[in-house]
Amino acid sequence: MELPNPVLTAAGCGGTGRELAQFFDVARLGAFVTRSITMAPRAGRPTPRMAETPSGLLNAVGLQGPGVEAFLERELPWLAERGARTIVSVGGGTVAEFTALSRRLADAPGITAVEVNLSCPNVEDRGRMFARDGSAAAEVVASVRAAIRYDVPVIAKLSPDVADIVAVARSCVDGGADALAMINTPAGMSIDVDAMRPTLAAGAGGLSGPAVRPLAVRCVWQAHAALPGVPIIGMGGVTTGRDALELILAGACAVAVGTATFHDPYACPRILRELEELLTERGFDRLADAVGLAHRPAGTGPRGRTDLEESSL
Amino acid sequence: MELPNPVLTAAGCGGTGRELAQFFDVARLGAFVTRSITMAPRAGRPTPRMAETPSGLLNAVGLQGPGVEAFLERELPWLAERGARTIVSVGGGTVAEFTALSRRLADAPGITAVEVNLSCPNVEDRGRMFARDGSAAAEVVASVRAAIRYDVPVIAKLSPDVADIVAVARSCVDGGADALAMINTPAGMSIDVDAMRPTLAAGAGGLSGPAVRPLAVRCVWQAHAALPGVPIIGMGGVTTGRDALELILAGACAVAVGTATFHDPYACPRILRELEELLTERGFDRLADAVGLAHRPAGTGPRGRTDLEESSL
Amino acid sequence: MAGSPVQMTGTVLTTRRVDAYHALTVVAPGIADRFRPGHFVTVAAGGRDTSMLTRRALTVHDVKPDYGGTVELVFAVRGAGTAWLAEVKARDTLDLVGPLGRPFPLPRDPCTCVLVGGEYGSASLFALGDALQTRGCRIDFVLGATTAERVFGALRARRMGETTTLTTEDGSLGMRGKVTDVLPGVIADARADVVYACGPMAMLRGVTAVAVEFGIPVQVAVEEHMACGIGVCMTCVVPVIGEDGVTRMLRACVEGPVFRGERVRFDDVGTIPFDALGAPGGRNV
Amino acid sequence: MAGSPVQMTGTVLTTRRVDAYHALTVVAPGIADRFRPGHFVTVAAGGRDTSMLTRRALTVHDVKPDYGGTVELVFAVRGAGTAWLAEVKARDTLDLVGPLGRPFPLPRDPCTCVLVGGEYGSASLFALGDALQTRGCRIDFVLGATTAERVFGALRARRMGETTTLTTEDGSLGMRGKVTDVLPGVIADARADVVYACGPMAMLRGVTAVAVEFGIPVQVAVEEHMACGIGVCMTCVVPVIGEDGVTRMLRACVEGPVFRGERVRFDDVGTIPFDALGAPGGRNV
Ligand SMILES: Cc1cc2nc3c(=O)[nH]c(=O)nc-3n(C[C@H](O)[C@H](O)[C@H](O)COP(=O)(O)OP(=O)(O)OC[C@H]3O[C@@H](n4cnc5c(N)ncnc54)[C@H](O)[C@@H]3O)c2cc1C
Ligand SMILES: Cc1cc2nc3c(=O)[nH]c(=O)nc-3n(C[C@H](O)[C@H](O)[C@H](O)COP(=O)(O)OP(=O)(O)OC[C@H]3O[C@@H](n4cnc5c(N)ncnc54)[C@H](O)[C@@H]3O)c2cc1C
Ligand SMILES: Cc1cc2nc3c(=O)[nH]c(=O)nc-3n(C[C@H](O)[C@H](O)[C@H](O)COP(=O)(O)O)c2cc1C
Ligand SMILES: Cc1cc2nc3c(=O)[nH]c(=O)nc-3n(C[C@H](O)[C@H](O)[C@H](O)COP(=O)(O)O)c2cc1C
Ligand code: FES
Ligand code: FES
């Protein structure tokens, strides 16, 4: 998967692309990642669907969307026409649904990659999400991988709500994932102390934004350390070029921007510009040289300044 | 376990008690929870041990402490003398260590409860923390329960870094835990993009502060829903009385305050005062009436105003 | 794209208290230019290093040509974001995105319009009134609130409107009661052709019911919790019946905030109606 | 408890730029009262609803009796917190906790003291100098920095000190080089009895080495990352050798920031020395 630049939208945070196109040319994105597309149309969860928390946002949208047919008819062609590279995020409640969905996407033109949203509840396992269990996750990934054209990469999107992210990542790679995306939103909740009820109609929701960035950096770091050859799309609280670089130094080769776009519609192109400046300042010719660089053993840094600081401690 | 009020210090966030006593009388705390006491003295982790993140704090202190003998000699008697109720947090690397430690504490006077820090790495399981696995956690809890006097409650302190907090909570209760404390800090990381290294010397650390409150509320909610009879001490990002009430409405019967004390040394007594005001405003005579109240089915609220608002939606 | 929104940093020109509300006038030419009545903006609250991630949606009360174009915002303090906004001072800057949303549609031909406002919802009616009068429409105002100091714009309504009827729930100003108590009379007296309304959901429901009874169209501007305001987050949805009779969860920020009242399923706001497109267990069209 | 710290909200009296630094004078009687040279305060940065949770530690440069007692802080902008502090204006309020830490111990009898400051570290030396002179001590200053505008307090040092020697790494002020290059000469010329030093760790290490060579005591004020400043978080530890010869990880905020230089294991800062009390795999005393 060759992308012209490493800044993508995060699934479910860029609408259909048309909304963002009011602010900037979506072809300038490394790729446009769709919201998670489901087989049938979905109305999602009742409102309120959002709650603000300190440096975070809880959401419970419930994968509202028009279903794969409408997506293929009205959304994907528009993105292709605009010259956007499209990564289609897919969601489902059973392995069979993921398979059917992938088959439907298999010969659609203009799909750069497929991202598998493993945070969907598994209706056959009491609604527990696939991502919590390596074997359930791997089964979904394998089913998608089998259905999608061999030259279209399959990305497994993981949740931080597990005891061992590396184990799940490894299972997904063994199941055929070409790349990993992390992190999806950890489950959180907020309670309105005046109404004395959960703020979200759905009760719990997914936590995003800078509050979760330390979790994202840690997950990316662990996965990159354990599986250095596997490309990782890092996400979770990226709002500036520095945040993007943090995930890249931890091991991501691309970053996705979600919640930041809600605050700044130009977030993606701005973050790309800031990231490029930071890389230039640090003398990197290629992004690849920065990927995972923070893993280098102490004392082997390429930067004089860094070493000096370290030796002065 | 009867406490005069529901606001406690969080383990590892109140020093020896003496430091806070400069600001307020530690007997005014619901209880003083010690840092996790270990068998032998521990020097902890190298510095930097802290990094600030958005609305959060990463720490990797590594349970620095003087060991149980020095604790019993110099710290516990001082707390008793000051009239503080002391909950002793215990940490260890093996079940045997927890057992030995609990035996050493068994006949020490002035211990209100023992809290088992299950986020310690299990040296017999490749350093994975006990809390990530129900059976490992239960084994530790059972070993402590067996050693500690029957009338001293044992509290299991859980980590949110699991796929199913309820399963771990249930195992701990089955293993003999009289109460639960949640949440300990989820693992996080930050990278200094100038030095291009992890900010913490230890690499990863534990994330605390308001950033994690939505995770804490969700964990408390889930545990209270599944195990309504088990008392829960809620913690994670409590900085105001409203935050404390949020955890109480989710199901906590007491709250602990950690990171907030670093910013405001008077945080505990202030939060207690604010909480009491909020409870009075809402017409609660007893804290117990508020515990878990947000779980009541929609439409059954005791508050006229709330119902009105809801019906107007 | 003439109507497309922009992000800009505007200097605050003036701040005022207006009874229970705060009013800010901000220099924002790019937004003022494109403004049509019913548009809103989103404001970044809290400043640099804030813990508040989401923008706050505020209706544009007025635009003026001064300084290349200004927008006036009127708001009540609700939580931390509006509390912060209330402390903004002249010469501070504000980060705005706008104009956003689907504005009030205007009638092609002159007609008689009743403009109903509840609480700060009245704020969006005066620019609308201007536009209607420019088109030769007659306008009548009905403004209500819980109590006198929460009725916004009574004076201006009296100056603009053919008639102005005020209601407060405590009777401290105008008639004691709700706007819906007086609305039938106002519609009948004015022989109104159309109703426009902005205010709390419960009021919009009531106003819609009255308009439906009279068999006249009603345009309502709704409020739902918004995380983005630009149509990408899907948090602000409301159940709305389409031309085809199918209920869809539509985004208040881009498909609204103005909807035809009789199309909004007010009783089902805050739920997913079982017959909505894609409802769980419902028919999947 | 005379020395015990307090939390207070102080009004900012003045703000100034001093070369590369910012200086704030804040009304804080309770802190000024209790101040002794070497004390620091912690400042809440970012205001209400900020995403910055931890206070920033700043040495108290000076206290004055005005307005019941003021403290002066001098700081360099490093990250978000100090950037915020740099924008604080007169009449704003600041939330302070202090005075904190173990201050510089003063000699019982009059003697000759060399005061060595690096970068903003010099700021803590003038109150110390006053106290020493009050006790009849002779004081000599050695101040250094990378470049001229980062040398803090040269003028005041010239007024107070018997001698004042300045160094800059780029030679833009005083001697080209480091304070440790000139320190032996100053100690020898003054026949100094004791050295006090405040500045970056590397400088403190060098100064300590020189003092040890001369066989005179040295008191250093160290800097380590602090999350609380009041001794409860254990993040600010430094390896220090005790009277009993055992190395312990001591908290810079309460057991320091001032330590006897020769007791601080500078080469091991940022590590847990293998022979420290409770070191992993080490002896467990
Ligand atoms: C289209 C539109 C126009 C509006 N115009 C005005 C106006 O002119 N004057 C005015 O006083 N208020 C207006 N509101 C409501 C205003 O947006 C909320 O009062 C405000 O966002 C509350 O922010 P807070 O920080 O004070 O409250 P908090 O409760 O702290 O807000 C938390 C989060 O919830 C969101 N939120 C909370 N309540 C609402 C709400 N009612 N609508 C949308 N988002 C909400 C906030 O944007 C924020 O993201 C409008 C809302 C919408 C949707
Ligand atoms: C006892 C003591 C006295 C000090 N006196 C002064 C002074 O007089 N003038 C001055 O300019 N600076 C002083 N410092 C350093 C000052 O505390 C840091 O520059 C400041 O905290 C950086 O905050 P920031 O928000 O700009 O940087 P950030 O990097 O954003 O800070 C992030 C976090 O790390 C902590 N931190 C970062 N660097 C340091 C550091 N060097 N020491 C302690 N904590 C740090 C901050 O407190 C904050 O919690 C002193 C430090 C200590 C320990
Ligand atoms: C409103 C909202 C909707 C989302 N929808 C999806 C989705 O459909 N599929 C998915 O895989 N992730 C979804 N996510 C998760 C994001 O893609 C991303 O993983 C997460 O928000 C962390 O990134 P951020 O902090 O930059 O937002 C959604 C997040 C938000 C906030
Ligand atoms: C510096 C620091 C040290 C801590 N030490 C311990 C500890 O020794 N044992 C323990 O169980 N938890 C420890 N914790 C976790 C806290 O007790 C608490 O669970 C967590 O910080 C969440 O609460 P807070 O957000 O209020 O800080 C520590 C937390 C911090 C920030
Ligand atoms: S507020 Fe985001 S889609 Fe409407
Ligand atoms: S800064 Fe917390 S113990 Fe020193």
TrEMBL record, chains A, B:
Cofactor: FMN
EC number: 1.3.-.-
Chain residues that bind FMN: 117, 157, 183, 209, 236-237, 258-259
One BP annotation, GO: 'de novo' pyrimidine nucleobase biosynthetic process
Active-site residue numbers: 120 (nucleophile)
Single GO MF descriptor: dihydroorotate dehydrogenase activity
Cross-referenced PROSITE patterns: DHODEHASE_2 (PS00912)
Domain Dihydroorotate dehydrogenase catalytic: 2-279
Record keyword Glycoprotein present: no
Residues at which substrate binds: 59-63, 117, 184-185
Pathway: Pyrimidine metabolism; UMP biosynthesis via de novo pathway
Cofactor binding description: Binds 1 FMN per subunit.
Root EC class: oxidoreductase
Reported function: Catalyzes the conversion of dihydroorotate to orotate.
Protein name (record): Dihydroorotate dehydrogenase
Protein source organism: Sphaerimonospora thailandensis
TrEMBL record, chains C, D:
UniProt xrefs under Gene3D superfamilies: Dihydroorotate dehydrogenase, electron transfer subunit, Nucleotide-binding domain of ferredoxin-NADP reductase (FNR) module, Translation factors
Family matches, as PROSITE patterns: FAD_FR (PS51384)
Keywords linked to the UniProt accession: 2Fe-2S, Electron transport, FAD, Flavoprotein, Iron, Iron-sulfur, Metal-binding, Transport
UniProt GO BP: pyrimidine nucleotide biosynthetic process
Keyword Hydrolase attributed: no
Pfam families: DHODB_Fe-S_bind (PF10418)
Cofactor(s) for this UniProt protein: FAD; [2Fe-2S] cluster
Keyword Methyltransferase: no
Co-factor note (free text): Binds 1 FAD per subunit.
Single GO MF annotation: metal ion binding
Protein name: Dihydroorotate dehydrogenase B (NAD(+)), electron transfer subunit
Originating organism: Sphaerimonospora thailandensis
Gene: pyrK
